[in-house]
Every structure is written in C-alpha cells, then in structure tokens.
Amino acid sequence: TVDVLSSQIDEVSGNYFVYASVKAWVYRDDGMFFESVAAVAPIQMRGDGPNETVAETDALVKAAAAASKEIVDQLSAAGIR
After folding, report:
1. Could you give the C-alpha distances from 61 to 20, 28, 43, 49, 67, in angstroms and in order?
2. Do the beta carbons of residue 16 and residue 50 sit within 8 Å?
3. Contact status, residue 22 vs residue 58, Cβ threshold 8 Å
4. Strand pairing of 16-29 and 8-9?
5. What separation in angstroms does the CA of 67 have from each of 12, 28, 32, 50?
6. What is the pLDDT of residues 4-23, one digit of tens each?
7. Residue 32: exposed, middle, or buried by beta-carbon count in 10 A (0-12, 13-18, 19+)?
C-alpha cells in the first residue's frame, strides 16, 4: 500500500517536500492456504524537489527502497529465497 501526503514548501530552501508511506506483505501459498512470510509496517520517507511531482517521486522511491530492503532482510532471515 502506498500513500502520498500533501506537499508543503520548505521555508528555508523554497523547495517542496512530501512524505510517502509504504507498507507491504509477502504471502506464500502452502498448497491449501496463504501464509504471511514477511511484512513491513508503514515506512514514511520525505522527498524534496523543485516541484510537487519531483518531491513525490523522490519520497516514493525512498520509501519503496526502504520497504523492499526490509522485506528482503526478513525473507533472508527466514531462509526464504
């Protein structure tokens, strides 16, 4: 799930900043049921840029990278490849 919060202007730099929130789940099919094997609570990251679009993209990329790293770490710790 991805959420983008409203943009604001940084009073110091004059750039826009936006926060994006990402949460994710990974499920495995065991033949009869699906079981959750990894999950990430909402991770919020700030993105900055000269306009709203650039700030949103920056925030989304950062949040997605952090969430995917957490998922990979959990899968590796569980011995799932």
Report:
1. 9, 26, 12, 13, 10
2. yes
3. no
4. antiparallel
5. 29, 18, 28, 25
6. 998 999 999 999 999 999 99
7. exposed
Structure tokens belonging to residue 76: 């590796």
- Read off the tokens for 16: 């826009």
DSSP H or E stretch at residue 55: helix 52-77
Adjacent-strand bridge partners of 45: 20
> How crowded is residue 45: how many other Cβ atoms within 10 Å of its Cβ?
19
pTM of the model: 0.86
**Sign of the alpha-carbon dihedral angle for 64, 66, 70, 75:** positive
Find out whether 10 and 46 touch, Cβ atoms under 8 Å. no
Could you read off the pLDDT of 23-33 as tens digits, one per residue?
999 999 989 99
